[in-house]
UniProtKB/TrEMBL annotation:
InterPro entries: Cyt_P450 (IPR001128), Cyt_P450_sf (IPR036396), Cytochrome_P450_Monooxygen (IPR050665)
Protein name, per record: Cytochrome P450
Keywords: Heme, Iron, Membrane, Metal-binding, Monooxygenase, Oxidoreductase, Transmembrane, Transmembrane helix
Organism: Rhynchospora breviuscula
Family, as annotated: Belongs to the cytochrome P450 family.
Amino acid sequence: MVVLQPLSSSQDVSHASPPLRAEKRLNLYFFFIEGRTAAEVKLEEIAYPPRVRFLIPIISLYHDLQYWGPDANEFNPERFFEGISKASVPDANLPFSGGPRVWIGQNFAMIEAKLFLARILQCFRFELSPAYAHAPYDMVTIQPQYRAHIILGRSMLRCLLL
């Protein structure tokens, strides 16, 4: 069972990165990335002419045991403790798209999310309920089908200092 413990004052914001990356990998905002060939592209024995549209099934990539190991379908922040490059094979993690169309605000968004999570973790600890069932549901964006059941605990020592 994964438990996010309160942060002590000696820990920095970088400790918030692994849970954020693990959450973003499991709970995608979209199922596919769409692309188009700019020139002729050859993949194995098939040649694709310019302007062919294609879809990359990100959800399949993020749940592939070959890239993420036997716990590919589990929330596991530990896989990101040594950075993104050691978590999986190169280019298997595309949280903000990739290549020339990568989202320009991704670094700001991650810093903002880390600061928010670090501030929350100074006062509280979070734990997934045993009743939680991971079931992403595709609407316009991907959302949890059965809600996220979370057990919340409070860390009084640090909260009194804030």
